[in-house]
Design brief:
By secondary structure, the protein is an all-alpha fold. About 45% of the residues lie in helices and about 0% in strands. A two-stranded parallel sheet has the order 1-2. Helix 3 packs across helix 4, helix 4 packs antiparallel against helix 9 and helix 5 packs across helix 6. It starts with a helix and ends in a 7-residue tail after the last helix. About 5% of the residues have low confidence.
Length: about 325
């Protein structure tokens, strides 16, 4: 029930994406494991093609009627704003399609296909007349035809550059292999998608991870030591080379002053107040004494009752 409810979009966000699509196909997988779709994989293959066609008919109606937002879409650089797996299943259906029956064997055999390996190569999607003729029988052609309908007026190479690049592949086997890798990388490897999967007795999470878990780096980005304790090997080597630069070299001349001079705390305060050397160093004390003498001379030169005398701050006296 959880997969059926989430297979048609999010009711609050009003969006639809590959995660909702995955929910539907997990539902088909669960039904097959329970024996509802037949005992063999051949029954599953036929059920997937027929059920996917009807599922697309319903979801496309919902998408256009309620203007659902694409969830996680890549725009023109993706296959479709909403779907991914129907393209893969459609490409698998077209592998070695020459001499085969259409739509899983429930239609008459086309005499033009007899004795030929692939009557409809990947680049035949550029033929709009052929798409109109074959889209009821082949899932991939139906998906491409729908995209051309909703993006009418734009060149196919500009509105769907990835699908246009697929037309350059030599056969449908390579198309299917590439689409499967795309699905694994852009859907199954994405946490925002798989975090909504519900696992149980039929759909179990008992697989071995295929990728090495990511770990935080154990070194800083700016290694400071040459003994291997403050950074990685490359950073330590770079630090050692910088410290070993000969005097007068470019590396030595461009080094910041604080990179070599030892850092020590100042021996004086920032505002020395005494002239006897008790509250600061000699230079600071002399500077403070000269500043006070200059200020006293300036105050003595101001005549009594002048504007400067009246506007002087109380603490200046």
């Amino acid at each position: 029930r959880a997969y059926l409810v989430s297979a048609f979009g999010h009711p609050a966000r009003l969006d639809y994406g590959t995660g909702h699509e995955c929910s539907f196909f997990v539902l088909l997988f669960a039904l097959f494991k329970m024996g509802a779709l037949g005992p063999s994989e051949e029954h599953l293959r036929t059920a997937v093609l027929s059920c996917t066609a009807e599922y697309l008919r319903v979801t496309r109606s919902i998408q256009t009627e309620y203007l659902l937002e694409p969830a996680g879409s890549h725009g023109v650089w993706g296959l479709d704003d909403y779907h991914c797996l129907p393209f893969y299943f459609g490409a698998c259906q077209l592998i070695h399609n020459g001499g085969t029956r259409r739509s899983g064997g429930d239609g008459p055999e086309d005499p033009r296909e007899a004795g030929r390996d692939e009557e409809y190569p990947p680049d035949c999607v550029n033929d709009d007349a052929l798409l109109e003729e074959l889209h009821p029988h082949y899932l991939y052609f139906g998906c491409v035809r729908f995209i051309k309908q909703i993006k009418r007026g734009a060149p196919f190479a500009e509105s769907s550059p990835m699908l246009h690049d697929i037309t350059g592949l030599p056969n449908w086997s390579k198309v299917a292999a590439g689409l499967l890798r795309l699905f694994e990388g852009e859907v199954l490897d994405k946490l925002p998608v798989v975090q909504h999967f519900v696992f149980g007795g039929i759909f179990k999470a008992d697989w071995e991870p295929s990728a090495t878990p990511r770990t935080a780096p154990s070194y800083t980005f700016s290694p400071q030591t040459v003994d291997g304790e403050g950074g990685d090997a490359a950073g330590t080597a770079a630090a050692a080379a910088a410290k070993a630069a000969p005097a007068g070299s470019f590396a030595e001349n461009t080094k910041a002053p604080w990179a070599t001079a030892p850092r020590t705390a100042p021996s004086y305060t920032f505002s020395p107040q005494t002239a006897d050397g008790k509250d600061g160093d000699a230079a600071g004390t002399a500077a403070a004494a000269a500043a006070r003498a200059t200020a006293a001379a300036a105050r003595a030169a101001v005549p009594a009752g002048s504007f400067a005398e009246h506007t002087r701050a109380p603490w200046a006296k």
